[in-house]
Amino acid sequence: MKTRKFALLVLIAGLALAVAVLLTGQPAQAAGGPGMPNGDISEDVYTIIISNEAPGRLIDRLVARGYGDLTLIEALAYFRDHSRGVISEDFYNQVYNAPAGSEVFTAKLENYVGIQGGVEISADGTIHTRAVTAAAYDGTTGYLTLFGDSGQFKFTHAQDVANYIYTGNTQLQVGPIVYNYDYYAFAIVWGEGISTYLPLVTR
User: Fold this and answer.
1) How many CB atoms neighbour CB 156 within 10 A?
2) Residue 45 burial (CB count, 10 A)
3) Geometric angle at alpha carbon 65, from 63 and 71, rounded to 5°
4) Closest by Cα among 190, 82, 69, 185 to 127
């Protein structure tokens, strides 16, 4: 008798579950469990590009003069100090405070000899190669070009955030969440074929 009652209870529970599936179109889930909507997170990341475009070939010239062993954070520090404010202290600090082991602390200028376009240093410490040139923006509306105070290279920079140059996207999935990182360059540093001297004074 007890066995029959138990079987009847199991049958009723099974029917209730089947009705729930039919009504919802999916198996019942615990709150916050699998099957719940996934949340995407988007973030804009600001960057600067060191261009190796012709005719200046800035990266090639720096390496040829013996500075290939500089890490990109060291190169960024130098360019910041000679950028007439184009590279802000705030941006530099964001890069400098990226997680230990980030590419900006390990990648060296010599890794990018001969590239077309340039190497992009991002506020989050990541590094990308981009097919972006200053020539495409130099002299156009929304952008200004000026010499660094050493007179050895130029900065073409956006006059407003709306003119920042979209350079690409990276996606990272952690569990059910997809992180979208959109990269925007506020400036490009480049050479015009003149000799470049880079004193080893970085901080």
Assistant:
1) 25
2) 18
3) 40
4) 185
Omega before residue 55 within 30° of 0, cis: yes
Rg of the chain, C-alpha, whole Å: 27
User: Do 202 and 80 meet the contact criterion of CB atoms below 8 Å apart?
Assistant: no
What are the residues facing 154 on neighbouring strands? 147, 190
Dihedral of alpha carbons 50, 147, 92, 40, sign: negative
pLDDT in tens, 23-61: 444 433 333 333 434 569 999 999 999 999 999 999 999
Please tell me the distance from the alpha carbon of residue 49 to that of residue 161, in angstroms, as a whole number. Answer: 16
Contacts of 73 (CB under 8 A, 6+ apart): 95, 96, 104, 105
Nearest to 121 by CA among 44, 53, 45: 45
Q: What does residue 157 show for φ and ψ, rounded to 5 degrees?
A: -135, 155
DSSP per position, 16-35: HHHHHHHHHSS----TTSTT
Amino acid, single-letter form, for residue 36: M
Question: CA-CA distance, 45 to 91, in Å (whole number)?
Answer: 11
Q: Are 112 and 75 in contact (CB under 8 A)?
A: no
Q: In the chain, where are the structural domains located? A: 1-30, 40-190
| Residue 131 structure tokens | 């097919």
- pLDDT tens digits for range 137-154: 999 999 999 998 777 899
- Residue where the block lists tokens 């590009």: 49
How many whole angstroms separate alpha carbon 160 and alpha carbon 78?
A: 24
